[in-house]
Amino acid sequence: MGHLLSLDLVAHNLVALYYPASPAWGNVRQEQEGIMATIEVCAARPEDAEAVLSVLRITQTETDNLARDAHAPLPSVAEERTFLAETLASPRNTFLAAFLDGELVGTANLVGSSRPRLAHRAGIGIAVEKHAWGHGIGTALMRELISFARNAGVETIDLEVRSDNERAIHLYQNLGFTRYARYEGFFEIDGEPIACDLMRLDLA
Q1: Predicted TM-score (pTM) of this structure
Q2: Domain range 12-202, its CATH number among 3.40.50.300, 3.40.630.30, 3.20.20.70, 1.20.1250.20
């Protein structure tokens, strides 16, 4: 199962994720077209499992920018609870939840490796429900992932993003990511090859 914005792609259940149990990092109040919105980003907890699955179910039907398609199976609530509990206890990964005015509308994860030769690198995934776009949720999630990666000693964050996903590419570039290659045919959707840009952020 991938946990992402309409930005990129990392399947969160490929690796047991890492994060010391931590409450919300903070609330952010910001004005969008005259409306004040409260954004809260925190480590997702087992009790968030149903809401997390709802975000995944919705986002995989709203965009073709994810590794998951609209018919991708999702874990059970019990399986997701176990995954989130393992993530909170892990020192090498994190899984975040973003709340807009109290509603869980986005998730993001950073996946490290337990292999010594790959331990300096991590991949990310992010997903935000479409109705919540434009509130800065993707940026807030990404900033927390980057902060977590730095504190965990990660030297490089890698990601893949559809080459035509200009919104996501712009966000990543604003956060310091650079494009270093293009992978033609990274996706294949309805028989059509889709290129992805490979991007990285060097933290060391």
Answers
A1: 0.81
A2: 3.40.630.30
